């Protein structure tokens, strides 16, 4: 990486949508691992974070993404649960995100949590695209694994194409009913004004190259200035989960969205009664393509740069609160940082 790249942080991408519409499967397809197999009841109960480096994205996207066109280091995906009882987790994910993917099952169309997710994205002013998922379930679908949408679409019979078109236009209509102007992504010029709809299958991987290409393009085009942050500054993040970890006691899984965190740092973490001031004992990083939620073999690292999902081991974290802020003190006044955490 050139020194210029070093100042660009990884965009955070939230994956939102109604229960069972395929959010985890989509990330699973991208990750090429079997996280979904390990999920209790196949319902995502917790937010997880998955870092996908640029070279992996470009390997999946093939001809659609030339790594030389991009200077972002990759994408950090945050999975969220679609079940109606997890509104807080969804808004936490939505508020953290720089950009988002709204997953909609082409058979099921808009459902209550689809609309709730749209509200979260609108309120947080988060640019997003729609993944119209499960295109492989259109009766008579002739799949080509991992293919971009165009060749696979042309490979279908007229009837199948017509059937898919009908479902896609229904989704575009539903977006319009919610006040969003939308179209199929290849017809969209300004992704800020119009929502791009990308037909995909999390099962066959069809359309996934397109989805990653559009996400990279969207972040590169509209997020670049926001990505050029002071990555060397003291870290700022949000607690996703507080977890007991063998040999470490209570730990926090955080998403770091600004600056750095190091093993010798003092941090302030929002707690259930008051801010917790503690010293980082270990930073435990899942391997690049693993998911923080299910990865058990962590790698100890000395420093992490935003954006990243990282597990922090430190004394006194038992009363840390999910959704609370985390701030690195470094060479600032400790009381100022405590005040910042209290004010958030
Ligand atoms: P929650 O986390 O509970 O909100 O669900 P989710 O959106 O993460 O859905 P998940 O990925 O768990 O998928 C739900 C079901 O749909 C699973 O049985 C998947 O195998 C299936 N599924 C997901 N994507 C596709 C797809 O593209 N095609 C087909 N045929 N099935 C899919
Ligand atoms: Mg899920």
TrEMBL record:
GO cellular component assignments = cytoplasm
Task: Tell me where in this chain the Tr-type G domain is found.
Answer: 8-223
Q: Which UniProt keywords apply?
A: GTP-binding, Initiation factor, Nucleotide-binding, Protein biosynthesis
**Which sites bind GTP?**
17-24, 79-83, 133-136
Gene Ontology MF terms in the entry: GTP binding; GTPase activity; translation initiation factor activity
User: What is known about what this protein does?
Assistant: Function in general translation initiation by promoting the binding of the formylmethionine-tRNA to ribosomes. Seems to function along with eIF-2.
Q: Which family does it belong to?
A: Belongs to the TRAFAC class translation factor GTPase superfamily. Classic translation factor GTPase family. IF-2 subfamily.
What name has this protein been given in UniProt? Answer: Probable translation initiation factor IF-2
Coding gene? infB
Q: Which residues of the full protein are shown?
A: 7 to 350 of 601
